[in-house]
Design goal:
The complex is a heterotrimer. By secondary structure, chain A is α/β, with parallel strands linked by helices. In chain A, strands 5-2-1-13-24 form a 5-stranded parallel β-sheet. Chain A has a 5-stranded parallel β-sheet with strand order 15-22-16-17-18. A 5-stranded parallel β-sheet of chain A has the order 32-31-30-36-47, with helices on one face. By secondary structure, chain B is α/β, with parallel strands linked by helices. Chain B contains 7 helices and 9 strands, in the order βαβααβαβαβββαββα. In chain B, the strands form 3 sheets. A 4-stranded parallel β-sheet of chain B has the order 3-2-4-5. In chain B, strands 1-6-7 form a 3-stranded antiparallel β-sheet. The longest helix of chain B is centred in the first third of the chain and has 18 residues. The chains are: A alpha/beta, B alpha/beta, C alpha/beta.
Chain lengths: ~1000, ~220, ~90
């Protein structure tokens, strides 16, 4: 992992190019920018967001995708050290790690992003309608458009091919309407040159074209839709606003069928790999569809149910039991339309072999991922090698390194995966880059010089009110002048005026000038939503010397003019009320001082398995001191029992090399044979004491406590020497035991997994079985290998090894848990009887070896470590991350991160990615000189507090604590400002900055005062 | 800790409805911890009573206020003005607090808003359970730290009665038989023979049967 | 928390509430408390999508619905607001 970046002739730049602005690229960008690197993000689309923005909800929690990703997009969009180049592509890359020159072409938007305020009026009035690609062809958009309502940047783009002016030479309606004068038909393509130290590729993937599978009728029968179309159908912001309707006739479908593996796991007609996500998204879509309309009866036609992730099996069980989702194991051979009804007839073979025709109202094709058609050009541009499936060539041990040094990959572009793994890799490449460029950290970032803050202590409120027209977005519905008049003379208002665009540069300058000229000490802008625009105006008044928390935004666009069109009088009345409520709060606003705490630039890694080793090396290479705490005397953890991976990489060699690296690393301190006794402190400032008495200070913690292998009690294990585990077999094969010609191996999958009391998938066992089966067959092609399985879950590119095993003659027998295989011993031979569910008959095998595929369990110490840091575990004992989708290596408590098997069962390459991700996330904290405490936090009044512990027990972040005096104190560094403590405190000892009770009550009173009662 | 429970809303309303100016007076120690009588509860109760008055068409002013403890003189100073203002004060402190307030303001109408229930512990957030009967003569050293006076329905001193079944008390399956617990604990500690010693009948003189009690701390008392 | 709070509010009121005749032109004044991260965002989105709803709903933004204090709901009712909507 260490790089030769220290050689003196070599230039190292503190900036990074990220190609791709999806959720993975955004994660990398935020991590890097926060850690002191300049980021250039190049995105082909006109907005960042990628694939996730098209999704309605996410599995297995049912969270709204846009709600999660939208704040992230806003954060990326306004980060001082992230430059977004949307509608742009990389032309060429030259140079070497640390010093690349990248040429980027910026396609013309025909809208000047410096002038455009994103008000969207042009889009409303544009006369030309075009089929919307974002909405998957289900509805139309305009020729001037933003990709989706929450697009970042919000600057519109003109679709030249469909613009009436560009095609016919007249129209220019948008230009006439735009009061900001942002339309620029003369914009030309531009070329930009960027100098960066490293490159991250996260351009995402394309989706399989369902039209290729003609027998399924997509493109022919209107009520056959793709899964991504169905996402849009389910979405509240989609073409049908969340009403489940079918495109053919707008009727509400009841019988909906999902057909799995369309374009995946099919090496003859489509792609050989498994797309990893379709089984779960189909389950999610079925559940959500049922939630929208409980008349819906979903059926999912699948080959193998691949619910291999954390809590996925439980989600499928819920779909079956609580939502009545029917899972039908069958390949659908054809879809026909029933004449006259628009319904669809599906032909498939039932378990017993009989062919049936079943009628459905709507059919959803679960289409898989595939590389973009131009991936070869992209590979050429970046000079990276692709594998035979046109994915970037990576290895099990270096999952995010491409063939070119200094160029890294993440997300689905690397291989098919779901959102949390994409986010993990996003942080992993960030961590990898931080290590590569560590010496140049901070060299290219911009910081802002601010004037000193004006002391307003003791002053009466002097409020300036600015009411925005937003072009005509607000003013066509709300009488803006009347709003201005209504607040003149209100208590504390010393200035009120209307502006065309409050967010435009000239208005910002005006606000600043007025703050100084009229000595304003509070500013209220009535315009759009604080979610996107509050930070902008806060910066404006801060530039004018006011504390930024003296600003308040009144949302009279999204929450007034736009939802009350045509009701001008009532809307104006409401806008006045909203502004007066905001004024009431504004009068009571107080400056908020934001503290900061210093950071000890060292980390502690708990656990010295592969996860801990990789995390420690990454942090060490980033330039931080690292303490590894391992309870055993040796490093390596479970990997000490592993010999080779699915792609035949040598695990022991890898492990030895990494342990050598650790031992030689000047920044890594190893504590073996000891455990954590206690840790005090908080993010940036922890102090840990070990059971051997050693103690040290550190700023971050990585929990990598690992897992253990299940020791089976089933199938005569421990009673008969010929009954072994996959791990025993792997060792035999690796240390040179031959395989006799005709030797017979029978493997049983899911031993001790996917049933009570350990009802979850261990994710690794299918590939373990296939890995060993291939190894046996390669040693002796006429050895017999039978794998008795429930579902083969060789997700992603692992699927190709499943095909390979079949090609090599490995026999696969499917069993169901209700009828498990039986093992008998007769005359020194093992006999295994099973009921083959697919063939619907009993089968029997003789075996020299019975090999049990046993799963993983969390390490017993995980729970103890969890208790020390107040971390919660799921019912199976795996640690719960802060958010299953977007914060997969974080904990709710700041400064503590998670990786490896302590999080959930996973394969070695995934552990490595996650460890690098944890190191990347920890690096973000450790690279700060000072950690700024957020302004919106809860303030604790110790005089009023009687230490009842209610807050201590209920705070999700652990910020109230019992101090040295045995009383409750509040650690503001940990506080997220949710205010649960404030609302539950029986002594009223907490108040949240900017959301104080008196401020909220003043708003309530103002609302009530204005009512016609 | 002293545990209390707010009186039913209608009962409180009946007590205060004849007064024009009412102060809801919280106590911010024991009864605040059980979320019945602190500042927050005073605020909520006052608001609900104001709405009630409005619905009943009564012209009333209802305010709220709280002090650290209503059982000590000094804390009252900060609330003098509001107490003076009120026609009636609804104290939501324990019985001691209500009485102490009444003693300090002999001419005021002082009303109780809580029922003081017991001395207890916070078994888990929101669950308060009785542990002590304040008998004045502690025997916990004999019974493994489990009090049969407070926790045995019959306050038995020498083992369970015939109503103990499967570790539960005959009065309810919800109630643990404390003697069953005592015996188990003694067995675990290997000190079962402690229970062979007969505890003589309890001398209740130290309990409240001798009338209201006082306790003097020499050196502190003036 | 949200449900609990409204339950507290209702407990006090419903048991004693007197019924009144509702004038035909009456419309309720509704106050919504919305979490900054989800419900407030949803309210924004309804505007972005130009979904229309009556003007008698006003929204107060909270950092989280966990911040919704019992007294906010009570104060609203006490001041004559007809309905409180907590969303988060």
């Amino acid at each position: 992992m260490s790089n030769s970046s220290s050689s003196s002739d070599k230039r190292v730049r503190g900036s990074v190019l990220i190609a791709g602005g999806g959720v993975g690229g955004m994660q990398s960008a935020l991590d890097l920018a926060e850690a002191g690197f300049k980021v250039h993000m190049v995105q082909k689309d006109s907005s960042i967001g990628g694939t996730m923005v098209m999704l309605d909800k996410t599995f297995p929690t049912g969270d709204c995708a846009m709600c999660m990703i939208s704040p992230k997009m806003v954060e990326v969009g306004r980060h001082l050290n992230i430059d977004i180049h949307t509608f742009a592509e990389v032309l060429s890359v030259e140079g070497k790690p640390g010093d690349f020159t990248v040429r980027v072409v910026q396609h013309p938007r025909y809208v000047d992003s410096a002038k455009c305020t994103g008000c969207g009026l042009c889009e409303q009035k544009c006369p030309k309608k075009v089929i919307s690609g974002y909405e998957q062809g289900l509805i139309e958009r305009k020729a001037i458009y933003s990709l989706f309502p929450q697009a970042v940047p919000s600057t519109r783009v003109i679709d030249k091919d469909n613009c009436i002016f560009f095609q016919k030479g007249k129209c220019r309606a948008c230009e006439k309407l735009c009061e900001a004068g942002a339309i620029d038909f003369d914009q030309q393509e531009e070329e930009i040159e960027l100098k960066v130290g490293a490159i991250i590729l996260s351009p995402g993937l394309d989706r399989y074209d369902a039209k290729v599978r003609q027998e399924l009728g997509f493109g022919r029968w209107p009520n056959v839709v793709t899964s991504i179309q169905f996402e849009r159908i389910l979405s509240a912001s989609g073409p049908y606003r969340g009403e489940v309707k079918r495109p053919g006739d707008g009727k509400h479908p009841e019988r909906i069928a999902w057909i799995q593996c369309v374009g995946s796991r099919d090496r003859h007609n489509a792609n050989p790999w498994c797309s990893s996500v379709c089984c779960m998204y189909a389950t999610k879509q079925a559940i959500i569809a049922r939630e929208h309309d409980d008349h819906i009866a979903p059926t999912i036609f699948y080959m193998e149910l691949r619910a291999f992730g954390k809590d996925f099996d439980k989600y499928v069980d819920r779909a079956k039991n609580d939502y009545g989702v029917k899972y039908q194991r069958a390949m659908v051979s054809a879809v026909r339309e029933e004449p006259g009804t628009g319904n669809l007839i599906l032909r498939y073979a039932k378990e017993d072999g009989t062919l049936v025709d079943e009628t459905f109202d709507l059919v959803v094709l679960s289409i898989g991922f595939q590389p973009h058609s131009d991936v070869k050009d992209l590979a050429k541009t970046f000079d990276i090698e692709l594998n035979e499936h046109r994915f970037p060539k990576t290895t099990q041990f270096r999952p995010i390194d491409t063939s070119r040094d200094g160029v890294f990959v993440s997300g689905i572009f690397q291989s098919p995966k779901d959102i949390p793994e994409t986010v993990m890799q996003g942080s992993a490449v960030a961590g990898r880059t931080m290590a590569l460029l560590s010496e140049a950290r901070g060299s290219e970032i911009v910081t802002k010089e601010l004037p000193p803050e004006t002391d307003i202590n003791g002053q009466e409120a002097r409020i300036g009110v600015f009411v925005c027209h937003c072009g005509i977005n607000i003013s066509q519905t709300v009488d803006v002048e009347q709003v201005v008049e209504s607040v003149k003379g209100e208590q504390g208002v010393v200035h009120a005026e209307n502006v065309i665009y409050a967010c435009a540069q000239d208005s910002q300058d005006k606000i600043k000038a007025l703050v100084r000229e009229k000595e304003l000490n509070r500013v209220v802008v009535a315009s759009c939503t604080p979610r996107t625009h509050e930070p902008l105006f806060q910066d404006t008044i801060r530039d004018a010397g006011l504390n930024k928390y003296l600003f308040e935004l009144a949302d009279i666009r999204e929450q007034c003019s736009w939802c009350h069109m045509g009701q001008n009088e009532d809307a104006t009345e409401k806008a006045i009320r909203i502004v007066k409520m905001t004024l009431a709060k504004s009068r009571l606003l107080e400056p908020v001082s934001t503290d900061s705490v210093s950071v000890i630039p060292a980390a502690m890694v708990i656990g010295g398995g592969v996860a801990g080793i990789i995390a420690a090396l990454s942090l060490g290479d980033q330039g931080f001191d690292v303490h590894i705490v391992e309870r055993e005397t040796e490093l390596g953890g479970l990997a000490r029992n592993l010999f080779y991976t699915l792609d035949k990489s040598d695990v022991q060699e890898f492990l030895k090399a990494k342990i050598d690296e650790i031992q030689a690393h000047p920044r890594i301190i190893l504590h073996t044979g000891t455990e954590v006794k206690s840790t005090n402190g908080f993010v940036g400032n922890f102090k840990t004491t070990l059971t051997d008495g050693t103690s040290f200070e550190h700023g971050a913690i990585i929990v990598a406590t690992g897992g253990i292998e299940y020791e089976p009690t089933e199938y005569l294990y421990g009673e008969n020497d010929r009954v072994i585990t996959q791990r025993n077999l792997e060792k035999r094969l690796a240390v040179g035991h031959g395989v006799r010609s005709g030797e017979k191996f029978v493997m049983i999958q899911c031993v001790g997994s996917r049933e009570e009391p350990d009802n979850y998938c261990s994710r690794i066992c299918c590939q373990d079985a296939i890995k060993n089966a291939i190894a046996i067959k390669e040693k002796s092609s006429d050895a017999q290998v039978v794998i008795i399985y429930r579902d083969i879950r060789t997700y992603g590119l692992r699927e190709t090894y499943y095909s390979k095993a079949r090609d090599l003659g490995v026999i696969f027998v499917n069993y169901i848990p209700e009828r498990k295989p039986q093992v008998e011993v007769s005359e020194d031979k093992l006999r295994i009887k099973a009921f083959d569910y697919m063939l619907s008959r009993d089968v029997e095998f003789e075996a020299d070896w019975l090999v049990l595929s046993t799963g993983l369990r969390p390490h017993p110490t995980t729970e103890e470590v969890g208790k020390i840091y107040k971390l919660t575990c799921n019912p199976e004992g795996y640690l719960l991350e802060a958010h299953v989708k977007l914060r997969p290596v974080d904990f709710p408590s700041e400064g503590i991160f998670l990786c490896g098997l302590a999080h959930a069962p996973k394969n070695l390459d995934e552990t490595i990615s996650q460890a690098m991700a944890a190191a990347g996330r920890a690096g973000v904290i450790l690279s700060q000189d000072k950690l700024a405490v957020s302004g919106i936090i809860s303030k604790h009044n110790r005089d009023m507090c009687m230490s009842c512990l209610t807050c201590f027990r209920l705070c999700p972040y652990g910020s109230p604590y019992i101090d040295e005096e045995g009383k409750v104190s509040h650690n503001e560094v940990k506080c997220m400002g949710c205010g649960i403590c404030a609302s539950i405190c029986p002594a009223k000892a907490f108040q949240v900055n900017n959301f104080k009770d008196e401020q909220i009550l003043a708003m309530i009173d103002t609302l009530a005062d204005g009512m016609n009662m | 800790m002293i545990v209390g429970k707010q009186k039913p809303f209608e009962v409180i309303w009946d007590m205060i409805k004849e007064y024009k100016k009412v102060l809801i007076f919280g106590c911010n120690t024991c009864v605040a911890i059980c979320h019945e009588g602190g500042n927050k509860e005073a605020e909520i109760l006052a608001s609900m009573l104001r709405m009630k008055a409005k619905q009943e068409g009564l012209e009333m002013e209802i305010k709220n206020r709280g002090i650290e403890r209503q059982c000590e003189h000094e804390f009252f100073d900060s609330a003098n003005e509001q107490i003076e203002w009120a026609d009636a004060v609804l104290s939501i402190a324990c019985g001691a607090g209500v009485q102490f307030t009444a003693e300090k303001w002999p001419k005021k109408i002082i009303l109780p808003g809580l029922n003081t229930t017991f001395i207890g512990v916070v078994e888990r957030p929101g669950l308060f359970a009785e542990r002590c009967l304040m008998c004045g003569d502690c025997i916990l050293h004999l019974t493994g730290g489990l009090c049969p006076i407070a926790r045995c329905s019959k306050s038995l001193l020498n083992g369970p009665c015939g109503g103990s079944s499967k570790g539960k008390c005959e009065i309810s399956k919800e109630v643990d038989c404390v003697w069953d617990m005592i015996v188990r604990k003694k067995m675990e500690q290997g000190r079962l023979e402690d229970l062979l010693r007969i505890t003589p009948a309890k001398d209740w003189q130290t309990s409240r049967d001798g009338g209201p009690r006082k306790s003097v701390k020499e050196g502190l008392v003036e | 928390m949200t449900e609990e709070a409204s339950a507290v509010a209702q407990e006090g009121v419903s048991s004693v509430e007197k019924t009144h005749d509702i004038p035909s032109d009456w419309s309720p004044n509704i106050l919504a408390f919305a979490c900054h991260y989800c419900a407030f965002a949803a309210a924004d989105l309804s505007g972005v999508m130009r979904l229309s709803y009556p003007t008698n709903v006003k929204i107060i933004r909270l950092p989280c619905t966990g911040k919704l204090d019992h007294i906010y709901i009570l104060r609203a009712f006490e001041k004559g607001i007809d309905g409180v909507f907590a969303a988060g």
